[in-house]
Design brief:
about 10% strand; about 40% helix; 18 strands; 18 helices; about 525 residues
C-alpha cells in the first residue's frame, strides 16, 4: 500500500510502527510531514555546506530553529515550515554563493532525501533515527538558552556534525559512537540552559502553587519558554489580567524573578494531552510558547495564540517583536470567570508544589545523607518524563502510590501530573514528592545523583536510586542518550518502547545498559527494592 507519509518519532505513532496515512496520530497532515522531511534534508545540506565554507553569524540560529521546528507538536503549518526551508536555502546561498547554479556540482551542498533513511536497513535506520531525534531534542534546549543570550560552540558544532553524519553511508560500528555522543553533548546543553535560566531568573525555591482560577480576565501560558512568560508578565502588569501556567510551565512559579509578579496566580489544567478537554470553552486567552500544541478544537480555537516556532493554520502568531497585545485584548474581551473556580488535579488535590531543583536539594545534601545512613530514607525513585494519551500511563500513578513510606520520589517534566497532586506526607524533613522542574531539569537530577554518589563513595548505579521514565517525544530521546552516556543502568522505560528501535539496537541497549520496559507496578517495585 502506498504511503502518504512516514513518521515514527513519537510514542503514540500508529500501531507502534509508524504513521503512514493522510494524517498522523498527533494531527500533523501528510503534507506537513513531507515538508518537515524536506526541511530536515535542507538542514543536512546546509550542514554539509559548512564543511568547506565558514558559517555566518546567523547559521547556528537557522540550524537550531530548523531542527526545533520538526519536533512533535510544534508546527502543524506547512506554510511556516516552507518559510523555514527558504531561510535554510538563503543561508546556504550566503555561505556558498554560486553553488546552486554551478554546472559541475560536487554534491557536497546538495539537500538530502530522507527516504534514504526511512528505507534503509532497519539497524541503520534505527541508529540514524536515534541520532536525528536526539539532536532535535538538543536543539530545543539550545533554542531556549539561545534566546536568553547563551550559546555553546560545542553544542552548535555537534549539530552540524550529526546532520552531516546522517547523509553518510556508515555501518553500525561507525554510527553508534556518534549516537552516544549526542548524550554527552545534550548534558552540556542542559547545563547551559540551567545556567541561562538560573542566572536570568534566580535559583528556584520550593513553592506551593494554587489550582484555583480567580474571577476576571486571565491568560493561560503553556510550553517551556520562560522568557515568553516573563515578557507577558511585564506587558500585563497593572492591566487586571491574571496569568496561569499550564503543563511544563508550572516550574516557573519557583523562579524568584517570575514569582515576584503578583498576577502570576497559579496553574491551570494538567499535561498537554488533556488540553482539548480542559481548554473547551475556556473564557481566557491561551498562549503556546513551544511544543505540546494539539490541534485546537472549535470551542476554543479563537482564543489560541502561538509564538516562537509554534504554528497552526489560522492561529494568530506573535512574532519576534513579542508584542502580546492581541493576547491581552482577547483576554479582556472574554472577561474570564464571574466567580473564583477551584480546580483539582487528576487525583483530587487542590494544590501542587514545585521548585525542588538541584540548588535546593544539594543545599540539604548532608541532611539527606544522614537520613539515608540512619535508615529514615530507604530508596529514591526518579519518576518522570513526558506524559501522553496512550493507555498504560496510569502505571506511573499506581507505581508512586505503592512506593513505601520510607522512600522519596523525585519527578520532572509533564509526566508528574499523573501523581503530583497526591499528598504522600514527608520523610526526613522532606516532602515525599519533590518536583525538580521541566524535562530539561533532568540535568538537576543528574547533579543530585552524582553528588549523592560522591557522598556515599560509590557509583551512581550503586545508589539506592531507581529511574522509572515515561517518554513521548524527542527531548526524552536526548535525555535517555545522556543517561546512557553517563553509564546509568537499569532504567525502566514506558509506556511502550520506541518504534524506531530495531531488535538489534534494542538488544544492545538491554545487554549494555539493562534497559527494561515497564510492567506491573508492584512487581517492578519489588525488583527495584529487591
Amino acid at each position: 500500500m502506498e504511503k502518504n507519509m512516514f513518521c515514527f518519532q513519537c510514542e503514540q505513532t500508529a500501531g507502534c510502527n509508524g504513521c503512514t496515512g493522510k494524517r498522523g496520530v498527533c494531527g500533523k497532515t501528510a503534507d506537513v510531514a513531507k515538508a518537515q522531511d524536506e526541511l530536515t534534508g535542507a538542514l543536512i545540506g546546509l550542514a554539509k555546506t559548512c564543511g568547506n565554507n565558514p558559517k555566518t553569524a546567523d547559521t547556528d540560529r537557522v540550524i537550531i530553529e530548523g531542527l526545533f521546528t520538526t519536533l512533535t507538536n510544534v508546527s502543524f503549518n506547512e506554510e511556516t515550515v516552507r518559510v523555514m526551508i527558504e531561510r535554510v536555502e538563503e543561508e546556504k546561498s550566503r555561505i556558498a554563493p554560486g553553488c546552486g547554479t554551478c554546472v559541475a556540482k560536487c554534491g557536497t551542498t546538495d539537500n538530502y532525501d530522507m527516504e534514504q533513511i526511512w528505507n534503509a536497513d532497519e539497524d541503520i535506520r534505527s541508529l540514524k533515527s536515534l541520532l536525528l531525534f536526539g539532536i532535535r531534542g538538543v536543539a530545543a534546549y539550545a533554542y531556549h538558552a539561545m534566546v536568553l543570550g547563551y550559546q555553546s560552540e560545542e553544542v552548535n558544532f555537534f549539530l552540524y556534525k550529526a546532520l552531516a553524519t546522517l547523509s553518510m553511508d556508515l555501518g553500525m560500528e561507525e554510527l553508534l559512537p556518534v549516537v552516544l555522543e549526542t548524550g554527552k553533548v545534550n548534558l552540556t546543553c542542559m547545563e547551559l540552559l540551567d545556567r541561562a535560566n538560573t542566572e536570568t531568573y534566580g535559583i528556584p525555591k520550593p513553592t506551593e502553587v494554587s489550582l484555583k482560577v480567580e474571577k476576571g480576565p486571565f491568560i493561560v501560558v503553556t510550553g517551556h519558554d520562560l522568557r515568553d512568560l516573563k515578557l507577558l508578565l511585564e506587558q500585563t502588569e497593572g492591566k487586571g489580567i491574571n496569568i496561569y501556567t499550564h503543563g511544563e510551565m508550572l516550574p516557573a512559579h519557583a523562579y524568584p524573578e517570575l514569582k515576584k509578579y503578583g498576577h502570576l496566580k497559579g496553574n491551570f489544567g494538567t499535561a498537554w494531552q488533556n488540553q482539548q478537554k480542559e481548554f473547551a470553552g475556556l473564557p481566557g486567552a491561551i498562549l503556546f510558547t513551544t511544543n505540546c500544541l494539539m490541534p485546537p478544537k472549535e470551542s476554543y480555537a479563537d482564543r489560541v495564540f502561538s509564538t516562537e516556532v509554534v504554528s497552526y493554520p489560522g492561529v494568530v502568531h506573535v512574532d519576534d517583536g513579542k508584542d502580546f497585545t492581541p493576547v491581552i485584548e482577547k483576554a479582556l474581551e472574554l472577561g474570564g470567570f464571574e466567580e473564583d473556580r477551584q480546580y483539582k488535579g487528576i487525583n483530587g488535590g487542590e494544590k501542587l508544589t514545585t521548585g525542588f531543583g538541584h540548588g535546593t536539594i544539594l543545599q540539604a545534601a548532608d541532611q539527606i545523607v544522614d537520613a539515608v545512613k540512619a535508615g529514615a530514607i530507604r530508596h529514591f525513585f526518579l519518576v518522570g518524563g513526558c506524559d501522553g494519551a496512550r493507555k498504560g500511563r496510569n502505571y506511573y500513578t499506581e507505581f508512586v502510590k505503592q512506593t513505601p513510606a520510607d522512600t522519596i520520589i523525585l519527578t520532572l517534566a509533564c509526566g508528574k501530573y499523573r501523581f503530583n497532586d497526591l499528598d504522600l506526607g514527608s520523610i526526613g524533613g522532606f516532602p515525599r514528592i519533590m518536583d525538580m522542574g521541566q524535562c530539561n531539569d533532568a540535568y538537576g537530577a543528574i547533579k543530585v545523583a552524582v553528588a549523592l554518589a560522591e557522598a556515599f563513595d560509590c557509583g551512581v548505579n550503586e545508589l539506592p536510586l531507581s529511574m522509572v521514565l515515561s517518554w513521548y517525544e524527542q527531548k526524552a530521546v536526548c535525555i535517555l542518550l545522556t543517561l546512557l552516556h553517563l553509564g546509568i543502568k537499569n532504567i525502566y522505560l514506558g509506556p511502550s518502547l520506541p518504534a524506531f528501535l530495531s531488535p538489534n539496537v534494542l538488544q544492545y541497549l538491554v545487554e549494555n545498559y539493562q534497559i527494561s520496559p515497564i510492567g506491573d507496578p508492584k512487581e517492578d517495585l519489588e525488583k527495584m527494592l529487591g
